[in-house]
Write a structure and sequence with these properties.
- The chain is α+β, with helices and mostly antiparallel strands.
- It has 9 helices and 25 strands.
- The termini are far apart.
């Protein structure tokens, strides 16, 4: 019998006993310390009893990353499901959201203007014709990864003059009369069609909406009329579901959609977790544990990635707490050498939709968004505290500006007894002598500033968007600056 002892730079040794009959017996080395605890080793290899532990960690990591990757897809799938099952909207119907109650289900909705939107399943319709009437509108068509397919209205090719659009499903070729339309190609079978009416006159806005129509290209000779619906006071929520419901919604929408080339590795991760196209979702106990834990950690990371952004340049002014909330370089989510996974995850955790108008760099067109998640001292905004925001004279907005308060948990309009979430230049606000405005946020109304106040909810945190509609040059060159939200007595 021979004995060989090998020392390494670490504080463990491996002892191999070579027996006369030619067999070797490996003695366990010192365990490797990891963030999941010690991993027992056999020489350079994990011991067999460690394999299950390592695979459990792999599945947990896959679930966490898949959660973050799927946020935009699950968001739209959830929204579509709620429209269908709670509000009775079918593919091709338009939901008109005008009241405060209507919009409580929309993630970071604009409380100032109405939304008109609907989901269309191109599996059912084939190529889709959209007739947009002339008038002041902003909107577009997006696929289910929330990539803009084409803008409509003032930032679209019709430039507010209206026109006919044709949306083609994946792989479809343009028809012979494509020159009659603004043609757009979708990479998903399900799409969102939506727009906002920018005319402040409700009667004119209503008339414009009623002239909108969309229908299958195959029915163009005798099209029907788009059905307009309203939530009618029914509660609904477009917020991504939590826990296993998140994965159930993801599995459901994957069955309806083609797989993009860029997503095939993520589809491999999902297959390891029991989520596959053309297969039933029946996760094992081990897979279910990984999915539940991955969804929990994924959302925690999503919150950090959203409300404490670390993207270069996310902070709009270096001496202010305001962030540029939409950091996607262009609606395709693609830059030179990668797709913007983390920027995408942040935006679609806290918001929905993306159009070219939302990232326009042309003064006087589109809109822009600044987000505040903390006060001037860097502390989370607390619903039990009082705050003030000073808006200096001449905000750089050709149309109007608005300040909207959202619930941090749902990312929807704050659900307060006041039934009000926004303050805007379209409202009758009390102004200072120089034209500036002081806005107030807190659980109790500040005396003398009732019109300038949004009620917050004790026990809940909140965040806010400051929107500029048709931002002017002073926004882009940063010569106008917005104060931080400051604690107030």
């Amino acid at each position: 019998m021979e004995t060989f002892i090998r020392f390494t730079g670490r504080t463990f040794l491996t002892l191999t006993l070579t027996l006369a009959v030619g067999y070797s017996v490996a003695v366990h080395a010192q365990p490797v310390d990891t963030h999941i605890g010690p991993v027992t080793m056999e020489g350079e290899l994990p011991a067999h009893e460690s394999i299950a532990k390592l695979y459990a960690e792999l599945d947990y990591q896959q679930a966490t990353q898949s959660y973050l990757w799927a946020l935009p897809l699950v968001s739209y799938a959830q929204w579509q499901e709620e429209f269908q099952n709670k509000l009775g909207a079918r593919s091709g119907d338009l939901m008109v959201l005008t009241s405060y109650e209507d919009k409580l289900g929309v993630i970071t909705a604009n409380a100032t203007t109405p939304y008109i939107l609907g989901f269309v399943d191109l599996n059912e319709t084939g190529p889709l014709v959209i007739e947009l009437p002339p008038g002041p509108t902003a909107g577009g068509v997006g696929d289910f990864w929330q990539r803009a397919i084409i803008d409509m209205g003032e930032t679209g090719p019709d430039k507010g003059k209206g026109g006919k659009y044709l949306v083609l499903p994946p792989g479809a070729q343009p028809p012979g009369d494509a020159d009659k339309y603004y043609v757009a190609h979708s990479e998903t079978m399900n799409i969102l069609v939506g727009f906002r009416v920018l005319d402040p006159d409700p009667a004119k806005g209503k008339a414009l909406v009623e002239r909108f129509n969309m229908y299958s290209y195959a029915e163009r000779a005798n099209p029907g009329k788009t059905k307009l619906l309203s939530p009618g006071g029914k509660q609904w929520s477009g917020t991504q579901p939590r826990g296993m419901a998140y994965w159930e919604r993801l599995h459901q929408i994957i069955q309806k959609e083609p797989v993009n080339e860029r997503d095939r590795f993520y589809m491999a991760m999902l297959a390891s977790l029991g989520i596959e196209k053309n297969k039933a979702f029946k996760p094992s106990a081990e897979q279910r544990k990984a999915l539940e834990e991955g969804a929990q950690m994924g959302e925690l990371i999503a919150k950090a990635n959203t409300f404490a952004k670390r993207f270069p340049g996310a902070q709009f002014w270096p001496d202010r707490q305001w962030d540029t909330v939409l950091n996607i370089a262009e609606p395709s989510q693609r830059v030179a050498f990668y797709d913007q996974l983390w920027e995408r995850s942040a935006w679609f955790y806290e918001a929905v939709t993306n159009t070219k108008g939302m990232v326009s760099k042309t003064p006087g067109l589109g809109q822009t968004y600044l987000g505040a998640y903390t006060d001037s001292k860097g502390k989370w905004l607390d619903g039990s505290q009082n705050y003030r925001l000073h808006v200096g004279p001449n905000p750089p907005a050709k149309q109007f500006w608005s300040m909207t308060v959202y619930d941090i948990d749902t990312r929807c309009l704050i659900d307060n007894p006041q039934r009000k979430a926004d303050l805007s230049s379209r409202q009758n606000l009390k102004k200072n002598a120089d034209g500036s405005v002081d806005l107030y946020f807190g659980p109790k109304v500040p005396e003398g500033f009732e019109n300038n106040w949004v009620q917050t909810v004790p026990g809940k945190h909140w965040f806010s968007y400051f929107r500029l509609y048709a931002p002017t040059q002073a926004y882009f060159d940063k010569s106008w600056k917005l104060d931080d939200i400051t604690p107030a007595n």
